[in-house]
Amino acid sequence: MTKAMVIIGAGECGGRAALVLRDLGFEGPVTLVGDEPHLPYERPPLSKEAMTGEAPAIKAIASDEILAERSIRHIHSVQAVAIDRAAHVVRLSDGSALPYDKLLLATGSLPRKLPMPGLGARCVYLRTFNDAKAIHAHLRAGNRVAIVGGGFIGLELAASARKLGADVTVVEAQPRILMRGVPAEIAEIIHKQHEAEGVTILAGQGISAIADEGAEVRITLAGGLEVVADLAIIGIGAVPVTALAAEAGLAIDNGIAVDAELRTCDPDIFAAGDCCSFPLAVYGGRRVRLEAWRNAQEQGALAARNMLGAGEAHAAVPWFWSDQYGLTLQIAGLSDEGHSVVRRDLEDGAFILFHLAGDGRLVAASGIGPGNAVARDIRLAEMLIAKRAKPAPEALGSQTVKLKSLLAA
Amino acid sequence: MSDWVEACEAADIDEEDVMRFDHGGRTFAIYRSPDDEYFATDGLCSHEKVHLADGLVMDDIIECPKHNGRFNYKTGAARGAPVCVNLRTYPVKVDAGKVLIQIG
């Protein structure tokens, strides 16, 4: 019997899942539903490469030709409005209905809204390609850009805005930038780089009021300082898109709750990527939700395999990166699992912090340096973390000991 | 046919490792496999033009340092998302302790 596969959400995760279903030889109907008008595309460039070029361009995950060749039906500019679990049907905003045998929710996340009055047309968020185009139009010499939130999106946009010559001020309520998941030692390097490039960073400064009137935005900080800008970009985190799942009665727990095989409490419905929380095997099943490109890609592929009955448990180690100016940061694992830190210096000022649990197990590695200086060692660290290895701290800290040799041990 | 170009000393590359080689405005990656054979491919990942020589070699796979796209460096075949375009490979020989590649 031919089954029908339906995927809601045509981002990295959903797009990848559709392709993997075909890679695995599935021959039944595959339908990919997205609410944007574009082909499935990569989001990471939106704050970086796409933002610094002449004009933002889509970096598609699959072209129209590939989708046609692989018989993937892509329904764009349409939202899924309801799931009828008993009938195995998804209802769409254009009034149509899609029957499914297996359903994947890859609904992603949306920018967290700044919960205060006074925001208008000059206060914007970045999530989609269209958001990126609107922001790009404002990034030019002489324009003042205020960035609310010193996280990855905000800081990458700050770097891009400087590259295009705008005046940039970053406002962060926490005592320092990158409080979530990045060690202070590494955040400091990034902070200094931004200041050297001419960005003003105001950390530890909550916002008491925003007035978005006329030609400018005035942001008043709790300490009394006022930041005046032509554009305010708000990057204060993301929230999972769960309404569709919640209304269908699926369990929600900081995202759509899934098991290790990415299955929701309905065995015919899976969820993957930014929208789901799942048990992370490498940390004893700790339930997490990750907003990261590679996670979206890996979980999209894993969900596809499990929709076809593979019964495979998620085993990957979280990994993400950020590019700002010439610096690249890469982190494998979750550093909050660590109790102690060992530093390993590499060439050109690059370094890696290895985070060790109380029992000596390597649980995370955070690295920063020019270009891809830390990439290989972070990748090896990721493999050590996956193996639950307990490498000797002296070996981790010594430049003369190759990490690859620890992997073989 | 084009000439053989001397890229490096054979001993410059560890076993199961990779080295960047620039020549004539182009960039290549030269590999030494775990069984001590040498190979060469284009130096930049087909996904986002990142130098593969900063990546990790495991058996016959090179993994891009940026987004973990994988290629078989012996054949150039793309082996995993996000890469889907194969790498071009080049003939390699070792002569008197030198690695030479034939750049077409």
From TrEMBL, chain B:
GO terms for molecular function: 2 iron, 2 sulfur cluster binding; metal ion binding. It comes from the Bacteria. Residues 5-101 form the Rieske domain. Keywords: 2Fe-2S, Iron, Iron-sulfur, Metal-binding. Belongs to the bacterial ring-hydroxylating dioxygenase ferredoxin component family. InterPro entries: MocE_2FeS (IPR012747), Rieske_2Fe-2S (IPR017941), Rieske_2Fe-2S_sf (IPR036922). This is Putative Rieske-like ferredoxin MocE. Its cofactor is [2Fe-2S] cluster. The keyword rRNA-binding does not apply.
